[in-house]
Amino acid sequence: MKTNKVAIVTGGNAGLGFAIAKKLCAENIRTYIIGRNEEKTKLACEALGTNANYILHDLTDLSKIPDIIHHIKKKEGHIDILINNAGINMKKDFFEVTTSEFQDIIHTNLTSVFVISREVASVMQGQLKGSIVNISSMAAIYGIPQVPAYSASKAAIEGLTRSMAVDLAPYGIRVNCVAPGFIKTNMSSKALDNDPDRKHKVLSRTPLNKLGEPSDIAEAVFYYASEAAKYTTGTILPIDGGNSIGF
């Protein structure tokens, strides 16, 4: 059964973004994946089926974002859900991080989120409804070494979530945030398997004593995007097996 809803997932061609897009498509929501790698994005849409559509764009080019959102609005008539998932990271000694590298991560992880949210919210404002879900990280609350720019960007995303929630509430637009813990992806599994001490540290302070699945994040995002969360806005939901409160 068609829901007639339309969603946008940034960075939806791999990892957590793909899991989120998969869940939305499975719920019969027409889902637009914005990705910058043509091959990966096309293959992702083929795997997701007829509810998936793709738009090739590097979100660091802010100038074209308004046109992209206008295109989707013109084609579909409405936009109901925005998932701000795209982001980059860089692990580097604090003293070696250049100003340009720091600004690049802030530009991608924070400024582009603001710009696409502003444009989508302008569409939702006319509808008097909509849901925006941001993706944060444990780096927003932990002192994780060697990721100063990423940590700053994710802490800012949580602050932006609360601010947007207040500004957009009069228009029926809800804004929430999911903060993933250690999730079993190809990248994380490889990193932890190659570093037994770090893997032990991760699991020893995770009360559920296991890594999460990408589908765990997708289910949380879908909750926020659905009518089940119609009275929920401005919240940050850790999906981390208890890691953020583990001892």
UniProtKB/TrEMBL annotation:
Any one GO molecular-function label of the UniProt entry: oxidoreductase activity, acting on the CH-OH group of donors, NAD or NADP as acceptor
Gene3D superfamilies: NAD(P)-binding Rossmann-like Domain
Coiled coil: none
Transmembrane segments: none
Keyword ATP-binding carried by entry: no
Keyword annotations from UniProtKB, A to Z: Oxidoreductase
InterPro entries, A to Z: NAD(P)-bd_dom_sf, Sc_DH/Rdtase_CS, SDR_fam
Entry similarity comment: Belongs to the short-chain dehydrogenases/reductases (SDR) family.
Protein name: 3-oxoacyl-ACP reductase
